[in-house]
């Protein structure tokens, strides 16, 4: 039973991430539509994405040494509780009639910073809940579920056009609350968590330097880190273009955008299903990864130059 993938902890973390992913995709798409509709400016929309992306880039570097020393389980569910409160406050501000682009930016930066901290804690905590023999299956499930959350886009657009952004913010607050409650039920020993030692500035610097030193020594990990840093910048640039491109270029462009995204979801589900069933030999994984990364880069480079079909 030690090799069983769907144990209590894995089930709870999966359910929690699914619920929060649904809420996030629901609100993020609606926020993009709200900015484009109210400002009529791709520049303002891009500024929104740039500022939230900067928060996402900076916060993991700042908080990494803290996360390494404290309970990741507690960090994860505490951040989800905090997100729930923020979304409900944002909804209240909207219903009071004082909602503005500036307020939206402030809340979005805070939520993006929290999300990036959560991501670092989650990604380092997730493998602790899985037996090594089940890594491929577990990450196939994780990847597929992240893609399936895109099915919320048409629902988000429908609710946004019908009721505005208020109900969406309330829904997001509720989903993060449910996610946090599920995550509190996870039981695991976190021996790395330091309970009695005060975390001083000198300890922070020491831990930060240790992380940089480790990265320099592990050449493979350094290469992957640089690759994903470049990928994050290019993906962020594409995200700035994608929704405005469809919204301005087509009648009811947001629905064309969702139509295209639907087939991306289909592809991810098919790929995740194959990866879940297929046993890939360790010596072949690196070569497959390189081919996949090159193929994805080529396809993304051509994406907006080809017809919708």
What labels describe this entry?
single chain, 309 residues, mainly alpha
Number of beta-strand segments:
0
Structural class of the helices, strands and pairings?
mainly alpha
N-to-C series of helices and strands: HHHHHHHHHHH
- Given the structure, what is the number of helices? 11
Q: What value does the average pLDDT take?
A: 82
Task: Assess the beta-strand content as a share of residues.
Answer: under 5%
Largest sheet: none
How is this structure best described in words?
It is a single chain. It is built from eleven helices and no strands. With 309 residues, it is mostly helical. The mean pLDDT is 82.
Question: What is this structure's SSE topology?
Answer:
Layout: H1 8-39, H2 42-67, H3 72-95, H4 101-125, H5 135-148, H6 152-163, H7 166-183, H8 201-217, H9 219-249, H10 253-277, H11 282-302
Helix pairs in contact: 1-2, 1-6, 1-7, 2-4, 2-9, 3-4, 3-7, 5-10, 9-10
Question: Outline of this structure?
Answer:
The chain has helices at residues 8-39, 42-67, 72-95, 101-125, 135-148, 152-163, 166-183, 201-217, 219-249, 253-277, 282-302. The chain is mainly alpha-helical and 309 residues long.
């Amino acid at each position: 039973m030690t090799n069983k993938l769907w144990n209590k902890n894995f089930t709870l973390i999966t359910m929690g991430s699914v619920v929060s992913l649904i809420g996030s995709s629901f609100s993020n798409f609606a926020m993009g539509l709200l900015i484009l509709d109210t400002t009529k400016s791709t520049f303002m929309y891009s500024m929104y994405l740039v500022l939230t992306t900067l928060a996402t880039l900076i916060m993991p570097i700042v908080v990494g040494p803290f996360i390494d020393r404290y309970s990741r389980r507690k960090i994860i569910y505490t951040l989800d509780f905090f997100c729930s409160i923020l979304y409900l406050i944002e909804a209240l501000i909207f219903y009071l009639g004082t909602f503005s682009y500036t307020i939206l930016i402030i809340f979005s930066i805070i939520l993006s910073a929290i999300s990036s901290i959560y991501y670092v804690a989650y990604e380092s905590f997730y493998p602790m809940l899985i037996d090594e023999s089940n890594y491929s299956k577990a990450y196939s499930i994780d990847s597929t579920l992240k893609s399936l959350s895109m099915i919320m886009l048409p629902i988000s657009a429908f609710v946004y056009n019908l009721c505005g952004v208020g109900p969406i913010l309330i829904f997001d607050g509720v989903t993060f609350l449910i996610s946090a409650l599920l995550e509190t039920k996870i039981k695991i020993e976190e021996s790395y968590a330091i309970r009695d030692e005060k975390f001083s500035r000198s300890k922070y610097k020491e831990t930060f330097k240790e992380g940089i030193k480790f990265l320099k020594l592990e050449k493979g990990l350094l290469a992957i880190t640089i690759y994903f840093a470049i990928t994050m910048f290019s993906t962020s640039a594409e995200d700035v273009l994608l929704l405005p491109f469809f919204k301005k270029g087509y009648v009811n462009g947001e629905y064309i955008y969702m139509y295209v995204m639907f087939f991306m979801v289909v592809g991810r589900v098919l790929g995740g299903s194959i990866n879940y069933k297929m046993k890939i030999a360790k010596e072949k994984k690196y070569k497959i990864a390189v081919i996949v990364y090159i193929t994805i880069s080529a396809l993304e480079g051509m994406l907006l130059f080809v017809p919708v079909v």
